[in-house]
C-alpha cells in the first residue's frame, strides 16, 4: 500500500508538470498575440501549427526534470530548495527545446513567428505554473502523509539526546509521513518518550523484516566509524534507506575538496567562506536590505511603538548587551515586550513559553518576531548582519563556551537578525549545542544564495513557527 501511494504521488506530479508546461506554452502563444513588444508578430499562425513544438517542449522539460531529480523529492525538501532546482531545470529545458525545435521543425520555425518574446513568456510561465503546482502538490502530499497514506516506517538507532531530538522533530513535522516504530539500542531501556525500545543493535536484520521497515536513522554521533559501519552492514541485509546523523567533524567537513601539494594529495576540510570580496558583497546586501526594511516597516514600527507606550510604563525600546563579531559586545535594539522590571528579581534568565513577564502586546509581537524589527538599525550601523548566528548575552556566552566545543567560533562572523539554526526550528528554549552546530555549518558553507534562502524561510516561518515566544 505504501509503495502504491508513493507511485501515485509521482505519477500525479508528472501529470501536473505536463499540464503546467503545456498550459505555459499555450499562454505564451496567446501573450505573443496580445503583447506587441518587442515587435508586432509577423507570421503567427493558428495554434495547431505550434502543437508539434509544444510536444517537444513538454518532452524536453520532463527529461531535464528527471535528470535534475525533480521526481525523487526528499521528504524534508523545502519549497525554496525545490524552486531553485525548478528554475535551473526549466532554464536548461528551454534551451534543449529550442535546439530540438530548430532541428525538427526547421521550415516551420522560419515560416512561423516563434520569437524570443514567446520563448521568454513560456520560460517564465513554466516556472510560475510548475512552481505553483508543485507547491500545492507538496501541501496535499504532506497532508495525506500526516494521515498515514504513503508514509515510511522508521527505526531509530540510539536512545540518547540525538535520538530523542530526531523523534521530537518527526513528531513536530507529521507531514513528512514518518512512523517511528521504535528505538534500537544496547542500553537496556524499555521505552523512550513513549516509544518502545524493540531490541539490540544485533536484532536489526530481524526487526527490519518483521516490521517492514523503510528507513533506519542512526542517531549515534559519538560512535566510532567501525561501529557505524557495523550497523550499516546489518541494515543492508534488508532493502531500507539508511541515514546517519553526523558528528561535529562531519558537519564541519561537509564540503571536502581534494588538492595537492607538489603531487602530495591533501584534503581541504575547512576553507573560510566569508572573506575578501564576499565580505563586501554581504555588507552591500546588508545595507540595501536593512535600508529597505526600515523604510517599508517604518509606519508599522511607529504604530507598534505607540501601542507599547500606551499599554505599559517604561521605554519603547529595550537595549541589551550582546556578543557580536570577534566576541565584541554591542547594544542590540528591540521593541520592549516585557515589563520594565522583568529581571529585577531573577537576574538574566531565558525567555520561556507563556513567560509571565511578557505584556499582552509583548506576547503578540514576540510571536511574530516584530520585536526584532529595530535590529535593522544594528545592521545599518554594521554591528549585525541580516543573516548570521544569533547573538547571546555575555553571561550566557561565558557559560556556553566552557561546555560546548567550538562555541566561540560562532563569533568569527557578525551576528544576524536570523540564522540557519533559527529557520530549522532551533530558536527559543532549544538545545544550544545543536544551534552551535548549525551556526558553524553556516559559517563554513556561506553563500549569497544561502542567505536569500534563509531570509525567505524566515518570512515563511514567521507565520508557522511554534518556538517564537
Low-confidence stretches: none
User: Which sequence of SSEs, written as H and E, runs from N to C?
Assistant: HHHHHEHEEEHEHEHEEHEEHHEHEHHH
Distance between the termini: 41 Å
Placed side by side, the strands forming the largest sheet appear as 3-4-2-1-5-6
Work out the count of structural domains: 3
Main β sheet profile: 6 strands, mixed
Shape: globular
Note the total helix count: 16
- In total, the number of strands is 12
Mean pLDDT: 83
Residue fraction in strands = 5-15%
Structural class based on helices, strands and sheet pairing? alpha/beta
As a percent range, the share of helical residues equals 40-55%
Question: Can you characterise this structure?
Answer:
The chain is an alpha/beta fold and 469 residues long. The chain folds into three domains: 2-146, no CATH class; 152-245, Rossmann fold (3-Layer(aba) Sandwich), CATH 3.40.50; 277-461, no CATH class. 51% of the residues lie in helices and 12% in strands. It has 16 helices and twelve strands. The protein has a six-stranded mixed beta sheet with strand order 3-4-2-1-5-6, with helices on both faces. β1, α6 (161-172) and β2 (178-184) form a beta-alpha-beta unit. α1 runs antiparallel to α5, α2 (51-67) packs across α3 and α3 crosses α5 (116-146). The longest helix has 35 residues, at 277-311. The relative contact order is 0.07.
Amino acid at each position: 500500500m505504501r509503495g502504491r501511494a508513493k507511485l501515485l504521488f509521482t505519477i500525479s506530479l508528472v501529470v501536473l508538470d505536463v499540464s503546467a508546461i503545456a498550459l505555459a506554452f499555450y499562454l505564451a502563444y496567446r501573450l505573443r498575440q496580445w503583447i506587441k513588444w518587442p515587435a508586432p508578430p509577423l507570421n503567427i499562425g493558428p495554434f495547431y501549427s505550434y502543437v508539434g513544438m509544444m510536444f517537444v517542449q513538454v518532452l524536453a522539460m520532463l527529461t531535464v526534470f528527471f535528470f535534475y531529480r525533480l521526481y525523487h523529492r526528499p521528504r524534508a525538501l523545502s519549497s525554496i530548495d525545490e524552486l531553485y532546482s525548478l528554475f535551473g531545470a526549466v532554464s536548461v529545458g528551454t534551451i534543449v527545446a529550442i535546439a530540438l525545435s530548430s532541428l525538427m521543425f526547421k521550415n516551420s520555425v522560419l515560416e512561423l513567428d516563434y520569437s524570443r518574446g514567446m520563448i521568454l513568456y513560456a520560460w517564465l510561465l513554466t516556472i510560475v505554473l510548475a512552481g505553483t503546482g508543485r507547491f500545492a502538490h507538496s501541501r496535499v502530499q504532506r497532508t495525506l502523509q500526516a494521515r498515514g497514506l504513503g508514509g515510511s516506517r522508521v527505526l531509530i538507532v540510539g536512545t540518547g539526546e540525538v535520538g530523542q531530538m530526531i523523534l521530537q522533530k518527526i513528531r513536530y513535522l507529521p507531514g513528512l509521513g514518518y512512523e517511528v516504530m521504535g528505538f534500537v539500542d544496547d542500553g537496556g531501556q524499555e521505552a523512550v518518550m513513549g516509544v518502545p525500545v524493540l531490541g539490540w543493535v544485533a536484532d536489526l536484520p530481524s526487526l527490519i523484516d518483521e516490521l517492514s521497515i523503510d528507513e533506519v536513522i542512526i542517531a549515534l554521533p559519538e560512535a566510532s566509524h567501525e561501529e557505524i559501519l557495523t550497523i550499516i552492514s546489518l541494515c543492508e541485509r534488508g532493502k531500507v534507506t539508511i541515514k546517519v546523523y553526523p558528528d561535529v567533524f562531519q558537519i564541519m567537513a561537509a564540503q571536502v575538496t581534494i588538492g595537492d601539494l607538489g603531487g602530495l594529495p591533501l584534503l581541504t576540510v575547512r576553507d573560510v567562506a566569508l572573506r575578501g570580496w564576499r565580505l563586501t558583497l554581504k555588507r552591500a546586501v546588508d545595507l540595501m536590505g536593512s535600508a529597505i526594511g526600515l523604510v517599508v516597516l517604518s509606519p508599522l514600527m511607529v504604530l507598534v511603538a505607540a501601542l507599547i507606550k500606551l499599554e505599559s510604563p517604561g521605554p519603547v525600546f529595550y537595549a541589551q548587551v550582546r556578543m557580536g563579531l570577534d566576541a565584541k559586545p554591542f547594544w542590540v535594539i528591540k521593541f520592549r515586550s516585557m515589563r520594565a522590571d522583568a529581571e529585577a528579581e531573577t537576574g538574566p534568565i531565558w525567555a520561556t513559553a507563556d513567560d509571565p513577564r511578557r505584556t499582552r502586546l509583548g506576547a503578540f509581537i514576540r510571536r511574530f518576531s516584530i520585536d526584532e524589527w529595530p535590529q535593522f538599525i544594528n545592521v545599518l550601523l554594521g554591528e549585525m548582519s541580516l543573516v548570521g548566528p544569533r547573538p547571546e548575552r555575555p553571561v550566557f556566552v561565558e557559560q556556553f563556551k566552557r561546555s560546548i566545543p567550538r562555541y566561540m567560533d560562532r563569533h568569527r562572523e557578525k551576528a544576524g537578525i536570523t540564522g540557519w539554526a533559527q529557520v530549522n526550528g532551533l530558536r527559543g528554549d532549544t538545545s544550544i549545542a545543536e544551534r552551535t552546530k548549525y551556526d558553524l555549518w553556516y559559517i563554513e558553507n556561506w553563500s549569497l544564495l544561502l542567505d536569500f534562502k534563509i531570509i525567505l524561510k524566515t518570512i515563511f516561518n514567521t507565520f508557522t513557527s511554534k518556538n517564537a515566544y
